[in-house]
Amino acid sequence: MAEIDIEETAESTLFELSEIESIAIRFAGDSGDGSQLIGKEFANTSAIVGNDISTLPDFPAEIRAPAGTLPGVSGFQIHISSEDIYTPGDEPQVLVAMNPAALKANVNDLPDGGIIIANTDNFTRNNLRKAGYDSDPLEGNGLSNYRVVKVPLTTLHKEAVAHVEGLTNRQIDMMKNFFALGLSYWIFDRPIEPTIRMLEKKFQGKDEIIDGNVSTLKAGYNFGETVEEFQIQYQVKKAVVAPGTYRAVTGTQATAIGMVTAAHKAGKTLFYGSYPITPASAVLEELAALKNFDVRTFQAEDEISALGAVIGAAFGGAFAATGTSGPGIALKSEAMNLALMMELPLVICNFQRGGPSTGMPTKTEQSDLLQCMFGRNGDSPIPIVSPATPSDCFDMVIEAFRIAVETMSPVIFLSDGYLNTSAEPWKIPDPDDIPTISVEHRTDPEGFLPYLRDPKTLSRPWVLPGTPGLEHRLGGLGKEDGTGNVSYDPDDNQHMANIRAERLARIADRIPLQHVMGPKSGDLLVLGWGCTYGAIRSAVRRMRQQGYSVAAAHLRYLNPFPKNLGAILSSYKTILVPELNMGQLSLLLQAKYPTQVIAPFNKVQGLPFKISELADKIAEILGAPKNAS
Amino acid sequence: MADAIETLTRKDFVSDQEVRWCPGCGDYAILAQMQRVLPEMGIAREEMVFISGIGCSSRFPYYMNTYGLHTIHGRAATVATGLKVANPDLHVWVITGDGDSLSIGGNHLLHVLRRNVNLNIILFNNAIYGLTKGQYSPTSPPGTRTYSSPMGSVEQDFNAISVALAAEATFVARSVDRNTKHMAEILKRATEHRGTSFVEIYQNCNIYNDGAWSFATEANVKDDQTVILEHGQPIIFGKDRDKGIRINGLAPEVVTLGNGVSESDLLAHDETLDNPAHAYLLSRLTHPDYPVPLGVFRCVERPIYEEQIIAQGRQAVEDRGAGDLNALYHATDTWIVPEGPDAETVQEVHEELPTSNIIPDIEQEDPMAPRTALQQLLYDPISSLDLPVPECVSADTSVADAVETMRSKNLGCLLVVNKRGLLRGIFAQGDLFEKVAGRDIDLTKITIDSLMTKDPTALKTSDPIGHLLHLMSLHGFRHIPIVDPDERPVGLASFKVMLKFTGGLFSDDISPN
Ligand SMILES: Cc1ncc(C[n+]2csc(CCOP(=O)(O)OP(=O)(O)O)c2C)c(N)n1
Ligand code: SF4
Ligand SMILES: [Mg+2]
Q1: Minimal Cα distance from A41: which residue of B?
Q2: Taking CB atoms and an 8 Å limit, are B463 and A126 in contact across chains?
Q3: Which of these, A17, A480, B276, B292, is most buried using a 10 Å CB contact count?
Q4: What is the mean pLDDT of residues B122-136?
Q5: Distance between terminal CA atoms of chain B?
């Protein structure tokens, strides 16, 4: 995520390569076929050989859908590249289909000329029927636009492991995905050693399992080398990336690690209260495994309870956060306002998913922005930050805690399911270089008032129960400033509303200014937020290479906006705002900057933007490219 | 600190806020007793936190000069739970009403009790919504006329004590606002109990539900209509202490002492019973059929929620060492991009993973994958089984030849195929027993055509193993032919083979690679 604030420099460095710069490959099969596993392994190896990677798992819509059927198809797409990439790729150029259903569910995403590697052993009459094929698509010329490579994978695999003793049939069956992985390694010219090492470590002491997996991995690799059919092999050049130690990280992991970091560095307990909901549950599970970091997780009886407990924990002095998605935010809204009125620091994570109502739990959307902004009774200004990439979740969740503690306010961390499940390389920071959030708990009774305000931030003191002489009561009723005594006095109420608004506005003094990539002024600025970062950045870069003058900016602070946002917007004729909703940021911008021409660009299909969709839109707005230089 | 604690008086607990309940409201008595009892508990004032929901009763924290939170309707228990997990040393009271914790907060009440968080819940039961001016509540008996039930409530009411017991509460007690001495005693007991203490206090709302508990408060009737529970004592009540509760079968009955009924015939109270049945039975003694019990129904020990959470944290540190951020960041495969433009190689680093598992195990990578070996059965195709190749014969084979083949090859059955090799029948040992044995038949003369089972149930290689097991168990088949898509036999699933296979599932080290 380092790129986000960095001005893009020499563009000429970009398209010099003779080998392919990037390719996206999708593994698809039944849930049991291990597509997720080999996809992940392929991504790791690619990262190790120096490609940039971006991955996106695609889980079947139905849990436990029958094997071989369309709803049972599970997939994993990875994008490998020699330049830094920001999305798992629009369309895969290569599809590894383990059965007819996997072919059927994915083939439409493949561009003409794309490669299909099919496990013919699974193209039985029964499987064809389950997938809804009348005849074998591999036999007719229905796939003539693609290069179809037929591999009797199961048979070859069984031969490859035949010499290994002590394997059950089931174990043998489960290993066949490594044949596909080996073959993919050959096609994309990556080493098989990292995977062998992984297997040796993972199955230490289970020699027959190591042997079986390694044998079939090698057989898959050799198959590519020896079989005539395979005259396709690609080399993807190494990406030029900043030196350092890297790892792959998903948004889920980055969010969890970020929270732990914020609390640990401040010397605080991390309390995380949550009620399971897709796609938030993974963060709860991630944190529950980190109890040796003084992490206390609370699986609540519902989302209200989760936030209630977080309020209690924050009052008690913990770094406290809750995580959910839209339906859970709806339940939490009353308690969010309680935290606002009590002026307690805590973080509310919204990992958005398709809505409204139960909507599409496993699909991504950005349609809770206005819910987070306004979805509560009364005027309720709550700060909102939003990560742009999986690894940015780390930085932004720490930011959420920093703002919460500095402001004594609940803060919303607005992420989404796509960021949670996608992975990208993360340059591992030195924990010592991450600024510590300084926390002060008042202990001095002299002149103490529970709502005494810091003149700069307007925040009240964070006093821990247990501190002698500072006993006080907090509540959600209207109150007098300073004492916090219940008051329905008209002036008190107006004053407190003003304070809450001003307290939020002043956060803008303590967050970075908005950065712009590309020309400082001109015809078009593409302004996004959240998970659209990768697609927007790639599209804008592509269009600039084609001679268009277009800039991009990505908001990571949504409430308040960065101070210079108005000035930036006014430097462009049109602001294109792509969002995976029906136009929510657009609405906010139109309200705040009414003279600005805002061009909303929206979709809610459960899918991320494609680079090409955005590029086309930019071209549509700008017409023919004016060559800027 | 100890000195300070000892010298605390009632006054130290009185806040500067003006108390704003209606004159005559039962809430005053509860506040007064709380402020009276606390100085005796040996707890520092700053260690106390009163947390309430919304309602008349929930104004309580404002009047206590301790730490306090006036939260939102029904949710006090959740806030208290979080606070206790963050700081288990604090002494926390949850102040709530019958609407607050049995209606809108009913769910949270159940769960805080079940978890056994170490805090005290004081439920002010006035059987009415006081703050919202007089609507019926979950404890208003059927027929109660209120502003929202002018013709009488048609809802069955809750028995707060029964609810608490059903939710696995470890301390359950009841008192009444007018019996201040008893209330003080119960408040003390609740404070001393380790775990969630649940205290229901009958509280009179003299504005909207006056006299709801008069049977338990009026001097002339209360001794006959209530009974004070005393641990280890027989349950005796009445102005003259001449009545008691006896158990008849599963039902309690009121008896008068004398005339052959002695104290030893009465139910003796034991609040420490692990089985909540006794306490539950007492909770069902309701007015007017029985005297209503006041006192401690149940007081048992169970592990405390927040203490277990803290203990797990300690255990994790013991097992894995105190958390180290750098190790956490590196707890997966990493790679190094070296300095300098011509640095060619990317070094791969396989960290010896610290036990912290931020990166999920690879076998968890596919969350939709079937988890257990048995579930896997539902999905795996029959082709993944190691099945013997069947012995196939034509229908005109003589029975004698068939028997000879079966004997020499030790087979339980033969599959019968037509000229094109397609499955037409199955000839099994059972057919011999049923149709041949004991009859005077020349086995060389007849063919198996007349004895075999025609068009037997067969499965395809691509069918799931689960289907196979299902057919075997449903129809008692000992053999099921397995055929290819053209119905040519390619395998034979026998009962024996399947037994061996399923047995293997349990003994195998299943490696989900
Ligand atoms: C979410 C919400 N719904 C409704 C109310 C209105 N309300 C406040 S107190 C109350 C009932 C209180 O009854 P009870 O808990 O028995 O307390 P009491 O006033 O009798 O002590 C209601 C319905 C509210 N404050 N918040
Ligand atoms: S309305 Fe009833 S419960 Fe509320 S303060 Fe008045 S008397 Fe008490
Ligand atoms: Mg009430």
Answers
A1: B362
A2: yes
A3: B292
A4: 98
A5: 60
